[in-house]
Design a protein that fits this description.
The protein is an alpha/beta fold. About 25% of the residues lie in helices and about 25% in strands.
């Protein structure tokens, strides 16, 4: 039987990265697209619980897709529980802009969609492509098709390996980050700590009132073995992610800190 892939993202259903992933996968699987109607970067795993969600069928280059008026996580939930698509695997991406470090994956809508799939028992892979100009990450320009040649090759190879060898054990999401120029091969990595140096820029509007932009320069490198370092070196970073955020190393310390009952300190 041909495996079924649910393809989603956070850049929106019209993103060139999404359809590059579709092209990479269409020969090895049945691919169904269900993605946000608009740009939804940095929304993480947020869910629309206070407003209704509308779903429209759209066509992109002759391919039918589902456009969801919500967030990446909403798209996965709608696909699984409203459209009843029953995928064997969820693929999220190709995101325009890398999603490396613990900082990035906890805010990334691309990874958020993959985590939601895993939460519902569906194995998931998130793909992101490094950009040299950070403006590209948010503007999502119409890149020439050749921009995605390397990343399409990686998407197809990674998913082919998973179909052949099975989804990795002890893993909920495989987070794949592809350098803008691939210089090496795969590197299994851990999460770096940060991707950006957080900053806030204050500006004044025409009425003299202040407003703020959250910004900050990208961190150029991180320790060897991290996803940040791998991508900076031109390697394809592959990071196993789990839903369990428990700090097991800290449990003994917590046992000492929180022994006894409230009001009783030992």
């Amino acid at each position: 039987m041909v495996p079924r892939i649910l393809l989603t993202n956070d850049d929106g259903v019209n993103s060139e990265g999404l359809w590059a992933a579709f092209d990479a996968l269409k020969e090895i699987a049945e691919v169904i697209v269900c993605a946000p109607a608009t740009q939804q970067s940095a929304v993480g795993r947020s869910v629309s619980i206070f407003e209704p969600l509308r779903v429209n069928e759209v066509t992109y280059n002759g391919v039918k897709a589902f456009s969801v008026g919500g967030k990446p996580t909403d798209s996965v939930i709608i696909a699984l529980f409203a459209l009843n698509l029953k995928p064997d695997l969820v693929v999220s991406g190709i995101n325009i802009g890398e999603n490396v470090s613990a900082e990035a994956i906890t805010t990334s809508g691309t990874v958020g969609a993959a985590l939601e799939a895993a939460n519902q028992g569906i194995p998931a892979v998130a793909f992101s492509l490094q950009v040299e100009d950070q403006a590209e990450k948010f503007d999502n320009p119409k890149f020439p098709g050749s921009r995605f040649d390397g990343s399409k090759m990686v998407v197809r190879d990674v998913i082919s390996r998973i179909f052949t060898q099975g989804f990795p054990k002890h893993t909920d999401v495989v987070n794949v980050n592809i350098p803008s120029v691939i210089k090496g091969g795969y590197e299994v990595t851990t999460l770096g700590e940060r991707l950006f140096e957080t900053g806030v820029e204050k500006r004044i509007d025409p009425r003299g009132k202040p407003y703020y932009w959250i910004n900050g320069p990208i961190i150029e490198d991180a320790p060897e073995g991290t996803d940040v370092h791998a991508v900076r070196m031109g390697n394809i970073s592959v990071t196993p992610i789990t839903l369990d955020c428990t700090s097991y190393k800290a449990t003994s310390c917590f046992g000492e800190l929180f022994s006894g009952s409230p009001g009783q300190q030992t």
